[in-house]
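Hypothesis: this fold can be encoded by more than one sequence.
Test: take the structure tokens below, design a sequence, compare later.
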């Protein structure tokens, strides 16, 4: 038992040190000086070619800040999935490392007749603690939701109407194309995910929508609202 917890203590010390050094660079991200040369053109052309975006595209409330809106959406849809994936991968790697150490120590202890119940207990707990399957499901549920809530609040403030899920989808798809990640967004799934996400994060979603104008137009970073 003591040996098992000594392994856990050593592991936690290593992880605390790693957290202190955590940064975008340590996760494998590199800052790009600029978006692709014609990113804004791609964004606008995507909206023009999508009939669900007609009401949005020609509303003067959005036209005045179109560049800022496009930049916010392109950043939001590109950064979130990559970061979720890399953090989940890192969590799984750390869990595998801890479980490997516990198994090795447990086998040695068993051969020498030691009590290894503590090793088995920690293995079970580590398996649950570092299981990334639930995290990935939650990540898929939340994907685009924060960006969509900001967009909904922004359009309400600037245009005076609440956008439909199909209109939000049109903007998200334009953002994905602008950052070189063209992909289909299911509007029905987005609507359901937003409802589920809001039930779990009601205060956060309300604040995102209240501060939407400041977020999109660059006065408040969205990460500042996650406390």
């Amino acid at each position: 038992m003591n040996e098992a917890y000594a392994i856990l203590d050593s592991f936690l010390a290593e992880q605390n040190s790693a957290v202190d050094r955590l940064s975008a660079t340590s996760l494998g991200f590199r800052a790009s000086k600029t978006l692709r040369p014609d990113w804004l053109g791609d964004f606008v052309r995507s909206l023009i070619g999508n009939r669900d975006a007609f009401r949005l595209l020609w509303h003067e409330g959005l036209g005045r800040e179109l560049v800022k809106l496009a930049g916010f959406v392109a950043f939001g849809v590109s950064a979130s999935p990559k970061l979720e994936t890399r953090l989940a991968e890192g969590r799984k790697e750390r869990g595998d490392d801890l479980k490997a150490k516990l198994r090795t120590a447990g086998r040695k202890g068993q051969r020498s007749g030691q009590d290894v119940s503590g090793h088995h207990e920690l293995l079970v707990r580590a398996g649950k603690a570092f299981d990334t399957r639930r995290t990935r499901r939650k990540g898929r549920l939340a994907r685009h939701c924060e960006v969509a809530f900001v967009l909904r609040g922004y359009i309400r403030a600037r245009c005076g109407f609440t956008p439909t899920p199909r209109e939000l989808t049109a903007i998200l798809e334009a953002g994905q194309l602008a950052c070189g990640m063209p992909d289909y967004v299911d509007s029905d799934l987005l609507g359901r995910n937003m409802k589920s996400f809001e039930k779990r994060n009601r205060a956060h979603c309300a604040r995102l929508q209240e501060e939407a104008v400041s977020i999109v137009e660059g006065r408040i970073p969205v990460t500042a609202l996650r406390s």
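Residues 39-88+133-225 form one domain. The chain has a mean pLDDT of 76.
Hypothesis status: open.
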